[in-house]
Design a protein that fits this description.
This protein has 4 helices and 10 strands, in the order H-H-E-H-H-E-E-E-E-E-E-E-E-E. The protein is an alpha+beta fold and 188 residues long. The longest helix has 10 residues, at 3-12. It is globular, with a radius of gyration of 17 Å.
């Protein structure tokens, strides 16, 4: 397994893609208030999205993994893959430009990283570390990012990842078929 393909598994657990941009982008209404200028009413939920999720923006370094062995079993990782991922430290960097998000993912000490762009709620094509195709979507749930990755290859599985930020700590819980792993990141 190459270091480049390894980068994405540890960092985002299924974001092991070359640069990705959603092909089926839809426009977001520009009006955030009612059309009555004298009484704009309460702000729509769309005005809350940037502020609630801005806490993800920045660079994150993996501090520890809990439950890795069980999730590695659920994914069917080889011994070589298991050893590499268990002993590596991932790093993430989130950026936002309007409704477009960019994530750069890598492994500490490995010069290659992968960058991709997505929009909340839009399905995009991605690949797993073994090259099998995935259908992925990331959505907002309050102040959390909720991800769903469906394997479209020979081994069928669905991986759900929930990311939450509290101060300078991000917890990412990945679940496959009732088996979970917690990855804890610290803002750098």
């Amino acid at each position: 397994m190459s270091a480049a393909s390894s980068v994405m598994f540890v960092c985002c657990l299924c974001f092991n893609l070359p640069s990705i941009t959603s092909a089926n982008q839809t426009s977001v209404p520009s009006a955030l208030h009612s059309s009555n200028d004298s009484n704009p009413g309460p702000p729509s939920r769309k005005t809350e999205i940037p502020m609630a999720l801005d806490k993800f923006v920045g660079r994150w370094l993996e501090e520890k993994k809990e439950g890795f062995s069980c999730l590695a079993d659920a994914l069917g990782l080889s011994g070589e893959q298991r050893a590499f991922f268990e002993n590596s430290q991932s790093e993430l960097s989130y950026k936002r430009d309007g409704d477009a998000w960019t994530i750069q993912v890598g492994i500490v000490g490995v010069p290659q990283s992968t960058t991709f762009t997505f929009k909340l709620g839009e399905t995009y094509d991605s690949t797993n570390i073994d090259g099998s195709p995935l259908k992925s979507v990331i959505q907002q749930d309050g102040d959390r990012l909720v991800e769903k990755h469906e394997n479209q290859g020979q081994r069928s599985f669905v991986m759900d990842i929930v990311r939450e930020v509290n101060d300078n700590i991000m917890n990412a819980t990945a679940t496959i078929g009732g088996v979970s792993m917690l990855t804890i990141y610290k803002r750098t």
